[in-house]
UniProtKB/TrEMBL annotation:
Residues 438-457 are annotated as: Disordered. The active site is at residues 183, 311, 340. Gene3D superfamilies: alpha/beta hydrolase. GO terms for molecular function: acetylesterase activity; monoacylglycerol lipase activity. SUPFAM superfamilies: alpha/beta-Hydrolases. This is AB hydrolase-1 domain-containing protein.
Length: 486
């Protein structure tokens, strides 16, 4: 501000009031992470075409195809210096996802008062006041992207994203680029930003509902019946659906077709196909090397990590408390509630539930009856302040912070600070189930009908106990003293 150095915490306090000065009130009939997550999946099936895109096709060095969807269309009257928001979707998702639509809508009309905003279905007829171009990266085989190579994509593969970012930068060299990733897309983008380090082309980055540590996440998910039989099974089904849409992948004789067909969980699928396709030793090796928490130490652009403590997919055990506290470029926001890419607030219960059943006006379902996502405004505030207010070079990464102001890790502290939320009862219930990392070795995996899955999970459990590849105590990290927002 006026060329003075500013800490990332001070930046958030000044430019992100939705994070610091507002309260996330969950929709009253969507209390708890499971209901928030289920609703996110339900809404995802009811509004496929609310945003109109212009598609551009890119070809990777190996012949693979990546599609990127622009909105507004490229012929709109935007300056070549207009900032660009680059979005990466979750597992098997794409530009059609409602969480993507909701974010783009907020980015396009962030400065328009809520009561003056157009309906999302008709926003193209509204005079554009947005300062952002928006572009969604559809990974190989996703969102009707043709598969022209033997590979799909995985949580560790960042080359396609790197290709897209370089292409956009070459197309608009004067524009500031910002990244927002969701779920597995957040893991990929976090890994990319860390890999690029000081050479990253982003001016700002936001990670939403990132699983961070895929080994810990897999263990946590498969410890519960609903994790194994609902979430993991659904992700496995989605992966197989995409795979069978592109059956040419299976023409290689290096895959066990029967193992893929019999897979019941995402870990089964990754063991039978993903880890083999990308030449990892096994699924444990893949998860360990794909985990983005190992790259947070190397991030050198202003970064917001946003997660919900009750997220049943990106489990709280994976939250990178230590890494965040040792990098002055990164701030962590944790809410008590919100589920997986949910954070739904408000909404009319009658219109939301009965509207689709009785053929009610689609506009009512999409805009008035359904709960609205809280996180989109927080995300746009964070990137908007940097591209239109504070230059990233103004951040004071070395400013000393007090110990009390750091993020509190629930594994080492009885007290955990959250963003404001009225869900005190939910908070208490969650806290009673905190598990110390050192006690993971004593956790018994529940019996599974799938013996291969049980073996995979036991391998993962051994890995998280014995692995010392994540050098969290290196000298560079310990020399950093930073203040984090929770």
């Amino acid at each position: 501000i006026n060329n003075k150095l500013i800490s990332i915490e001070d930046y958030v306090n000044k430019y992100c009031p939705n994070l610091t000065n507002s309260t996330f009130y969950p929709t009253i009939w969507l209390l708890g992470g499971h209901l928030q997550t289920f609703w996110a999946a339900f809404v995802g099936d009811n509004s496929k075409d609310r945003v109109k895109y212009e598609r551009e096709i890119l070809t990777a060095a190996d012949g693979g195809t990546i599609s990127i969807d622009w909105t507004p269309r490229l012929n709109e009257l935007f300056s070549d210096e207009s900032p660009i928001l680059i979005v990466s979707h979750g597992l098997t998702g794409g530009s059609h996802e409602t969480y993507v639509h909701d974010l783009l809508y907020e980015a396009l009309f962030h400065e328009v008062p809520a009561h003056k905003r157009p309906d999302l279905e008709n926003f193209e007829n509204h005079p554009l006041t947005a300062k952002f171009r928006c572009v969604v990266v559809n990974f190989r085989g996703c969102a009707n992207t043709k598969l022209t190579s033997p590979l799909l994509y995985c949580g560790a593969y960042t080359d396609d994203l790197r290709l897209v970012v370089k292409h956009i930068h070459a197309k608009f060299p004067k524009a500031k680029l910002c990244g927002v990733g969701f779920s597995l897309g957040a893991n990929i983008m976090t890994k990319y930003v860390g890999e690029e380090g000081v050479n990253c082309l982003f001016s700002a980055f936001v990670s939403v509902a990132n699983p961070y540590d895929l080994i810990s996440g897999a263990l946590a998910m498969h410890r519960t019946w609903i994790g194994r039989n609902i979430y993991s099974a659904k992700m496995n089904a989605n992966l197989k659906r995409v795979l069978y849409t592109h059956k040419q992948i299976l023409e290689s004789n290096k895959y066990d077709i029967d193992a893929i067909a019999k897979s019941k969980t995402i870990t089964d699928f990754d063991a039978a196909l993903t880890s083999i396709a990308f030449d990892y030793l096994n699924v444990t090796d893949y998860y360990r090397k794909a985990s983005s928490n190992a790259y947070i130490n190397h991030i050198r652009v202003p970064t917001l990590l946003l997660t919900a403590f009750d997220d049943p997919v990106a489990h709280f055990e994976t939250i990178p408390w230590y890494e965040v506290n040792h990098n002055g470029y990164v701030v962590l926001g944790v809410t008590k509630g919100g589920g997986h890419i949910g954070w739904f607030s408000g909404g009319n219960m009658f219109l939301s539930y009965l509207g689709p059943l009785i053929g009610y006006v689609k506009k009512e379902m999409n805009m008035k009856g359904a709960p609205q996502r809280w996180f989109t405004k927080s995300v746009v505030e964070f990137v908007n302040g940097i591209v239109n207010g504070v230059d990233e070079s103004q951040f004071n990464k070395e400013e000393s912070k007090t110990q009390d102001s750091k993020v509190k890790n629930p594994y080492t502290s009885q007290k955990l600070e959250f963003l404001p939320s009225p869900m005190s009862s939910t908070s208490s219930r969650i806290k009673r189930h905190l598990v110390d990392n050192d006690q993971l070795s004593h956790k018994k995996l529940k019996k599974s009908d799938n013996e291969e899955n049980k073996k995979n999970l036991m391998d993962l459990e051994k890995e998280i106990i014995s692995s010392n590849d994540f050098d969290l105590d290196n000298k560079e990290n310990n020399n950093k003293k930073n203040l984090k927002l929770v």
